[in-house]
Amino acid sequence: MPVVRRTWRRLVHTYHRLCARDDAVTHGFTVPSGVWSCDRCREPHLELSSLLRHVRTEHP
Questions:
Q1: Residue 50 pLDDT
Q2: Residue 36 belongs to what H/E stretch?
Q3: Across the strands, what pairs with 36?
Q4: Which of 26, 33, 45, 59 is the most buried (most CB within 10 A)?
Q5: Distance CA 45, CA 11 (A)
């Protein structure tokens, strides 16, 4: 079962990284370019790499 959960988390993460902005635009939401926000604590980040580092270190 842990393999299924891990695979599902990876798929969700991939969706958020690759498709979420395009999906939001097609549904009429305005997504600012270059601003990322942590889902857990709402801390803003100007680069995706800093967001990923934050999630990896602050929310393991």
A1: 85
A2: strand 36-37
A3: 45
A4: 45
A5: 22
**In contact, 36 and 45? CB cutoff 8 Å:** yes
CA distance 5 to 36: 25
The torsion of the CA quartet 35, 41, 43, 48, rounded to 10 degrees, works out to -50
Phi, psi of 4 (to 5 degrees): -65, -45
CA 40 – CA 8 distance, rounded (Å): 19
Residue 45 dihedral angles phi and psi, to the nearest 5°: -140, 140
Rg (CA), the chain: 13
Helices marked H in the chain — which ranges?
A: 2-18, 20-26, 48-58
Q: Read off the pLDDT band of 57 (50, 70, 90).
A: very high
